[in-house]
Amino acid sequence: MLTTNTPTGIDSRxxxxxxxxxxxxxxxxxxxxxxxxxxxxxRDLDLRPELLEPHRDAKPLQPHAELVExxxxxIFPPGTSATGDMYAVAIPFSHETIYASDTFRxxxxxxxxxxxxxxxxxxxxxxxxxxxxxxxxLRQFYHWELxxxxxxxxxxxxxxxxxxxxxxxxxxxxxxxxSLSNPDFAMPGEYTTESSLELDDLRAxxxxxxxxxxxxxxxxxxxxxxxxxxxxxxxxxxxxRTFSDVTxxxxxxxxxxxxxxxxxxxxxxTPFFRSGGIYHFxxxxxxxxxxxxxxEAQADRTAMARLCQELFSDRAQPMxxxxxxxxxxxxxxxxxYYYGLGTRSLILCPLLxxxxxxxxxxxxxxxxxxxxxxxxxxxxxxxxxxxxLALEKSLEALAQxxxxxxKEHFTAxxxxxxxxxxxxxxxxxxxxxxxxxxxxxxxxxxxxYPLYAQIDVRNSSQERNxxxxxxxxxxxxxxxxxLNKAGRSEFPMLKAVRFRVGQYLAALGEGLxxxxxxxxxxxxxxxxxxxxxxxxxxxxxxxxxVDAYLAAIDPQKKVLYHHRRQYEESITRINETLxxxxxxxxxxxxxxxxxxxxxxxxxxxxxxxYVGQSLAPELPFNEIYVGNLKLWQxxxxxxxxxxxxxxxxxxALPLQTTQLILAHSVPIxxxxxxxxxxxxxxxxxxxxxEIVKKRIDKVKTRSGERLTQPGYxxxxxxxxxxxxxxxxxxxxxRSEGLIEGDPEYHELEELQGINGLRAIRLKVHLHEEEQTAxxxxxxxxxxxGS
Length: 786
What we know:
five-stranded antiparallel sheet, GAF domain-containing protein
């Protein structure tokens, strides 16, 4: 383990005197049997005083080999085995041994010599020896309580197998004495426990060449391959971000081969990444899997993942297949895939989360039948938890990368379609690692059924303008009264402002244009405000009136904001109430069959839904789920009408809502538009659907009446079969007491090149407020905020 070609640079002498002194001390302590054992040896030694002198090498001891060997054997306990244990006695901090066990000699000494052979970890061994040497200096000269022993672990290549063994080297320097060999060197006056023990600092304070070490050093070597391999595996796994890292994977394979003592095993790791109930796969993340090297297994990787999940659903322990016989292949569905790859002996270790979910497999295989045995199985179990923790960390990092990619390139994603965005991000991350110019794959859902509806605040624009007009008229009127009270004045600006106030009041009596609004706001916030401040200072009799005018002004908006605030608060209250109501009901519908749902809040709420097999590939699809959503949508709108009817009487500004559905019975394709961060239709035919959606909110009937009316739900359709389907739902809702009377049938005006649209209008059975609570068992409550 040491090399004669790389001396430690420490001046040392061989001396038996420290050992002899230690034996005399043992006799002096009166320990039983010590005198009988050691006294004859010490008498023989005293007859040969040259043996107690320091020597550069072991040659002077050779004529007395038997006595020396007997003396040195006292160092080791009686039970020590010369053929099993690895130990030796050497000249301090050198490579020359004077005594060695058979095992030590075979493994570490150069042939036909007493010198320890060169070892690749020589630098670290030398460093360990220097640290021990400085311990001895501080013990002897400064009386520090430091150990006279040192231990270090070093890798050692097995000559036969090529595997790495880890050996712990223990150096025992109890029988070493230190002296100052350079009388001109001045030792530091003090070296306290607060001083540095860093090797470089010690070398600067105590140059090692100024000291001489006499005695002998005892070497004990033990094999710690099992424990150190676990440590090495753990350290390698700490650096794992993804198991697709070939460098880390090769390192892990080597450590497992060392840990098991089997150079001919192949190691694989098959992770299972799942999101939204869907398994996701890529060549990047499965390049180190043994299972997916099988073309048959690759053909249906989702089936393989489920098969593994079922196989280990009630089994957390690794499985050993010493030999993969034909009978075993018939009983275990995974074995044929491994057998086809040349595997004849196999260990499969499930990597399970705390909740029992299988997140991966650790695979250890051999092409030799019977190569893997039960002792290997029991040994690998101690490492399985390390792989589980590392794989969890790797999958969490992958999930974070995917989440970051989705947020960067897409938007907040609904659970129903999260799997698709995950799939796209997963593929993008793989491509981007190989090609930095790679782009995201498109996200498209083919053959989905669209459902569209809106709940709109009736005449919201007119109500907003009316609220603005009332505030402006009130503020201008109050200003005009104050300006009139000011009477004649030598302040010309007052007259000009009074004239313009009169002009604006006259204009507001005829309506309000958007251009007038901005101009008028600026006039009130600057010129009128300046005149009011002037009157407040110059006309004490008007101060109270001016204070009342200014107190009515909103401090943020700088204008009167009473009616406008009532309007905005009423709109907000309607939207928030409907928002909570729809969210609660939508969450229940997602449990029936997953579908995409998005809503937009403006002066009211509009929402899109898409449902189809491509949205939920893991679940069987049937058109009954489309009908179920249509019925739910219609029911929702009738109950929303009931809810806003109750709410209307509680609003600061009473507002009403209208309800509208667009029927569409033909599947369409939708794609996610990254710029707009929303789904949009694909194809020329499908675009017609999107155009109709944008134009029907204010559509009129052939008679010129607005289709949407408060207290009604309107359904726009183009095909007769769509009408028939909804009429079936109408009969049911009438029986439930949600709709009253017969449907009204209407032809609609042409919408910029789109004709042939028709509609039915359904009257909602509106209740008095005290009757708005639904009958028991009717489902949706219409109470505000429910």
